[in-house]
Every structure is written in structure tokens, then in C-alpha cells.
Amino acid sequence: MKHIKTIQQPCINASAHTGCGECQASCQSACKTSCTVANQKCQKESK
Amino acid sequence: MIHAFRFQNYYLALDVESGAVHSMDEQAYEVVRALEEGRPLESLPYPKEEVGEIVAELNSLHDAGAFEAEELVPPEGTGGQVIKAMCMHMAHDCNLRCKYCFADTGEFHGARMLMPEKVAYAALDFLIAHSGKRHNLEVDLFGGEPLMNWDVVKKTVAYGRELEKKHDKRINFTITTNCVALDDEKIDFINREMHNVVLSLDGRREIHDALRPTANGKGSFDLIAPRAQELVRRRGDKEHYVRGTFTNRNLDFTNDVKALREMGFEQISLEPVVLPDESPYAIRAEHVETVLAEYDKLASFLLSERKAGRWFNFFHFMVDLAGGPCLKKRVSGCGAGAEYVAVSPDGDIFPCHQFVGEAEWKMGSVLSGEFNTGMQQDFLSCNILTKPECRACWAKYFCSGGCAANAWKYNGDIRKPYRATCEFEKKRTECALGIFAAERES
Lengths: 47, 442
Hints:
The complex is a heterodimer of chains A (47) and B (442). Chain A has 47 residues and is low in regular secondary structure. Chain A has one helix and one strand; from the N terminus they run βα. Chain A is flat. Chain B is α/β, with parallel strands linked by helices and 442 residues long. Chain B has 15 helices and 15 strands. Chain B has a ten-stranded mixed sheet. Chain B is globular, with a radius of gyration of 23 Å. The chains are: A little secondary structure (47), B alpha/beta (442). Chains A and B meet through β1 and α1 of A and β3, α2, β7, β8 and β10 of B. β1 (4-8) of chain A pairs antiparallel with β3 (21-24) of chain B, so a sheet runs across the interface.
């Protein structure tokens, strides 16, 4: 493309095998006063 | 939904529902902005052919599911109302008297108290009993200051290890400490047993000492800094964060990140203080623009340091686009009151550490076993799909609805997000995506 470069392809996973809940609770990681979820790892991905 | 924004010299667009990110030239950016705002493309000062080219490119991205993608529906939950994470308040006491402490300098609006081992064991039993089929569980040993109850901390971990074997679970322990009581024995234990460590240190000596005095009113920086450095030196590459708080006294908090960098720390988190507007340290509406500009400054500092080979991580600028959480996680957020609870030293259960001591939010007791599943259901149903403001926000899959405690403290309703933190989260997300773009294209 001449004007637009995609630097990240679609990446939000909503497939049926997701939602296992094994990932970390986001507030436990470092903030304790706010909420950022997108920097959390998927437990399945990190295996 | 599309969010087009500028970061330094980059023109970027996030396709909210798919998570795709596009970098573009100025003309394409203006076309996307016009489409976002419903302005006619004829009003743009570009040749008609060029606008046509851009629209064709956008149509092609749309066909590929990467521009104006449809709203996704998360799969049904797989585990029901399970609890997988717990914040254990090992001590409602503290050896510091931080002036901005949300825990009322450790007491959480009650008496100073250490968690007895009986309560700690009952809390872990409660967690296991409510964890269903979840294998990975989390326990944060929190305070006040948990090192003031060190013997029970060690016993709690030992008991947790027994439970892991008995129930085929993995308990990832975290400890959040102000470092005052750290010594060699504690450092070695923490580095061996803790999956993550959060070390409280605010940055510049004068900022830290002004707001984090000891019980006798002296600065604590010189007590804390060398101990935190020693723990991190011995910890190697295991997970940890040096976590500071900024108030309206240090809205130039990039300088605190710089100070932490100069002390050798590479994993840094700095959080806006949570205080009512009447507090002398509160971050109020009139500070928001300054904070947003400071995040831009911090992003520039981070990029220049990394480019020069001096890598460090800032928690809120970290984003894992390709390997990040699934939609279900992004929708459900921090899990407070739903899959995450806090336990006070006397065994009472609250939705999270920020609610501890607030009588109306008591959910039950690990000693009696009572648990208010109705309140748990309220928290489960408080998510970005049920909060109209969140559902319409472009940053929803990055923040996942924000902090319920903040919402309640500022707006009296866990479903009404606190506007200032929304603005901070949006700016941090733009910075995170901008850093991603800049590092990818350099």
C-alpha cells in the first residue's frame, strides 16, 4: 500500500478455546491502583 | 471503531475491535480522522485522486478484518464463579508513615494488627476451595507492610506449597514491600519463593523522603534504596517491579523514572496517587493535562534510552499485541470481587485491597466460610460490555474498564469510571502503541 502500512495484524483472540482464566489477575502484577490488561501475558501463549 | 492519533512524528490508527495497528502518512491520517468524525472527505485539502487511493486502501483493510472490524463476542466463561487470586493483608501496620497512604498508614481505617497464621491458613484453604479447575493461582502478600509479619509470611508460603501438592495447583506468590526490613535472609527467601516482587520506591530522594517518612518522621530513602538494589541484583531476571507513586508534588515524574534508572532499576512502574480531591497531594482535574504531557515526555525518554542501548521497561508502556490476553480477559478486567479478593488480618473478605476496611464491601470471612456470591455476581457483571462509557471507548481492550475501587471512591459507583484515570489510561495506551511503532520501524 502507498499510504498505509499495517504494523500489527488483527490480534484480539476471541476463538472458542480462549477464556480459560489461567492468566494472571491484572491488578496483582505491579500497579495495585489502576488497571492495564493489555500488557498481561496469555498463559497458553507463554507455555 | 477506529482511533487515529499522533505519536511524535508517527500517524497511527488502532482498529479497536481487531487490535490491528496501522502507520500511515499525514494524508491518510486526515482521511481516517474525517471518517471518524463524520466529516465529508471533500472538505479535505487533498487531490480527489489521492483521497480515492486512500479510501481504496482502507476498504482493502476492511475486507481483511483490520479496519472498522465488527464488535467481537467473547466465548462463554469456562469456570463459573471461581476465585483464582488473593491479596492477603499480612499486616495492618507499617513502619513508614507515607502521607498519601490509601491504607491510612497501614491501619486500613481499623486497628493496627498482624494476620495470625490461623487466618493465613484459612485464607489459602478458602482460595483452594473456591478455585474450581483453575491450576494457576496467585497470592499477593501485602500490607501495610508484610515484612512486619515475617514469621507468618514464611509459614504461609510453606503451607501454600503443601496445598499445591495436595490439590495439584500452582500458587504464584508475590510480595509487595517497602523494603525497610529487608535483610539477607528475607532477600534470599523472597527471591527463592516469590514469583514476583513489588518494591515501593518513589524515585528522587527528595520526593521519596518528603512523602515516605519513617514512623519517627525521618526520610526513608537511605534505608530503602540500597536494600531494594541488593534484592534486584540477587534476583537476576526473575520478575519484579520497582513501583513508585506520584502525586501533585511531582507531576514531573519522568525525573523520578530517571532517578530509578540511575539507581540501576530496569523494571519500573509509577502510579498516580489515589486520593480524594481535598487531599493536599491529590491529582485533580486541573492536573490532568500536565500528567498527559508528562507521559509523552516519559515515552520520549524511554525510546531514547533504549535506542542508546540502555533498555528499561515502564509497566504501563508495555504492551504485548500479538501474544496478549484473549478477548474474554480484556472484557472482564482486573477481576476484583469476581475472581480476585482481598483478605484482612482478621479474615474478612473484600473485593480487592482497595476496598479493605470499607464495611459495606465486606463479602464474607475465611474463618466462617461465608461468602456473598451475590456481590461476586455484581462484580462479574461489571465489565466493559455492561458499562456504556467503557463499551464506547477506543481503549476498552487495553484497560478493560479500569479500577472498580477508583470508580466507587470518586463517583460512588463501581460502574462509573473515574474520568481522570480514563484519560491517563488512554494516553498511556497511545504511548505504548507509539513506542511499538517507533521501535518496529527504527
